[in-house]
Design goal:
eight-stranded mixed beta sheet, alpha+beta, 6 helices, DNA repair, disordered C terminus
Length: 284
Amino acid sequence: MPVSRPIWKGQLRLSLVSIAVELFSATKPNAKPSFRQIHEPSGKPINYEKVVAGIGPVDKDEIMKGFEYEKGDYVLLTDDEIDAVKLETRKTLELTQFVDAHEIDPIYFDKPYFVVPADELAEDAFRVIRDALRASKKVGLGQLALRGKEYLVAVQPTGTGLLMETLHYEDEIRKADPFFSSISAKKADEDLLEVATALIDKKTAKFDAGIFKDHYQAALRELIGRKLKSKGKRVSTKEEEPEERPSGSNVVDLMAALKSSLEGTGAPGKAATKPKASPRKKAV
């Protein structure tokens, strides 16, 4: 059972197959120490005022968001205008396209998330999607509306679960040519290439992130630990109660839905009920 709260709950859909799932961040938000500026004489945190050059501090209700369309020129937008174009968080993530994993350039990948079945009833269909992606060596693509924005995402199997990664849209990626255009296209010297290739072969091993340690962060935490010990000051927080998981009662008759999806005979988005007499097998 995950110890953190899901950031999203909804349906993972493949044509007529809908699976109740939950989404969890795959990275630790507090893995690295963060700092605030402190006023040393009083020991209080520093706060920042909103100021305008030549005017000084201004009231919050006098502040608007501005988009700089030319240097020094802005178009002003109200919060209501921005809120009007925000997307509602949808409860469905539909996989609409599949590609080979190697087709996605690593530069597009942004943040990873774990996708898990919401309950035991959803596991049967979840395993089918997971294993089908693994067998076909494909990555599922879709778009997820969350927190007012729409994210392009890629879903692929990892271990016994699924990994969803948000992707950058094409217009967010810088073109490489301006950075690489001055680099010669001349081939490397054959002798040097042979030595470098041999060195790479010698140092080749299976990837294991655990062997790499962030020595700076370790030293920083050690410093913080010494400071806390010398001052005897501690901070504690209460653990939050986990939310109740949603029911997976809308899981479809899997084989029928998959066949209907493949043949295109079913109505999109319609889910059949799961036969009650069919015993559920344990996850493998």
